[in-house]
Amino acid sequence: MTGTLILVRHGQSEWNLKNLFTGWRNPDLTEKGVEEARETGKALKAKGIVPDYYYTSALRRAQHTLDLMLEEMGIDNVTITRNIALNERDYGDLAGLNKDDARVKWGEEQVHIWRRSYDVPPPGGESLKDTADRTLPYYETELLPLLKAGKTVLVAAHGNSLRALVKYIEDLTPEQILAREIGTGQPTVYEISTDGKLERRVEL
């Protein structure tokens, strides 16, 4: 029996809308973000998906997204595990800054390197590799055993913590994962075999 892993990036946040580096800062969802979360919940319900386990980060926008999805799916009274291992990449000194203002301050090329390189962190922050270094051990110890046992696991998290998982699951290169866009509110669904390997990616 295969396990099913559902990865959902949070809906649009207030700082996504304002073009700000967010990281571990804690803005909530916009109206659009609320609707994105609800639509994903509706899509999962329409497919008859009922997860066995629920995980999210320690940040409000991911938690709110999961709550809205569960509401649309008609699911309540479940245990939700929240852990900082699933938090967004920490943008350090960039957090709270408008991305255009950051380009003025540090130069477009430098900001591009911080945003799109795999292992170069911004000042005081994390690279995508750093994010993977905390996200993947959590996946391997907490989520993968459930998937190997044939369970369905729903994770509501963030663009870069999910990129770390997608890179690992799909065995992508750093260049491939940096080119992968993970849209707000968009689900990625995998079937995982009993040996923990990707069996197939499922389109909703």
TrEMBL record:
Protein name: 2,3-bisphosphoglycerate-dependent phosphoglycerate mutase
Binding locations of substrate: 9-16, 22-23, 61, 88-91, 99, 115-116, 159-160
Record's keyword terms, sorted: Gluconeogenesis, Glycolysis, Isomerase
Similarity section: Belongs to the phosphoglycerate mutase family. BPG-dependent PGAM subfamily.
Sample GO molecular function, one term: phosphoglycerate mutase activity
Subunit (UniProt): Homodimer.
EC number assigned by the record: 5.4.2.11
Domain of life: Bacteria
Gene3D superfamilies: Phosphoglycerate mutase-like
GO BP: gluconeogenesis; glycolytic process
InterPro entries: His_Pase_superF_clade-1 (IPR013078), His_PPase_superfam (IPR029033), PG/BPGM_mutase_AS (IPR001345), Phosphogly_mut1 (IPR005952)
Site feature: Transition state stabilizer: H158
Source species: Devosia litorisediminis
